[in-house]
Amino acid sequence: MSFSLRRGSSPLLVSIPHLGTEIPEDLKPLYTPRALAIEDADWHLDRLYDFLPSLGASVLQPRYSRYVIDLNRPPDDAPMYPGASNTELCPTRFFNGDPLYAQGKAPPAEERIARRENYWRPYHEALRDEIARIKGEHGFVLLWDAHSIRSEIPWLFEGRLPDLNIGTADGASAHASIAKAVVDAAAANPAFSHVLNGRFKGGYITRRYGQPPDRVHAVQLEMCQRTYMEEEPPYGYLEPLARQVQPTLAAMVGAALDACRALYGR
């Protein structure tokens, strides 16, 4: 199985599409040795979000690395941020622009199609089906798309990112009251900087599945890894730091869920 799904009891579904750290054995010889360290993973988010069972959340997460397939990109590989540096559906570059693959080993078109069918499609079918199940049970869905990233990556963005980057596709993927609730929860702890719809407005998952008229609201959170882990090898989880940001993170998710419930009188 290329993903795992833990079904919960509440209207909350959390997707962690870049958590995976595995590369299939038959693909490993294609990559540079550096790529096998998976430096661009969204490390440890399952551990950081360990409060999700208390919210009754469903959680969907992949087994394989984004270096195999990027689950947060559209199937036609259209750029998510036109005019800026973008990574592809089957990424060929590290976040600094260096090549992921050994010379001449980047996947040809037929291999990219095969990966889309073998890895991307099952994840999105599971995501779609779980949204439908939750909506059928509760009447609405809050989809929280969880991400993390190094705080400084010049190839992708200028300067240093705020700690908490909240995205609602410029308001298209979630009701304004939900975005406000998340922002207010972030602002309650001034130790962490935040922004709404800044450099990261939400990727494919947020934009595709966030459909407020259909009672499905999606929020992406791109956290800076400096808030909870080492941003350099060995990418260790830093428990004292994590304990400082977890209450704010839990408050943001909880506030979004409460705001979603308030919309529908639940």
Walk me through the structure:
The protein starts with a strand and ends with a helix. The chain is globular, with a radius of gyration of 18 Å. The protein has one domain: Zn-dependent exopeptidases (Aminopeptidase, 3-Layer(aba) Sandwich). It is built from five helices and seven strands, in the order ββαβαββαβαβα. The chain has a seven-stranded mixed sheet, with helices on both faces. It has helices spanning 45-48, 109-138, 176-187, 204-209, 239-263, and strands at 3-6, 12-15, 58-62, 141-149, 164-167, 194-196, 216-224. By secondary structure, the chain is α/β, with parallel strands linked by helices. 29% of the residues lie in helices and 14% in strands. Helix 3 runs antiparallel to helix 5. Strand 2 (12-15), helix 1 (45-48) and strand 3 form a beta-alpha-beta unit.
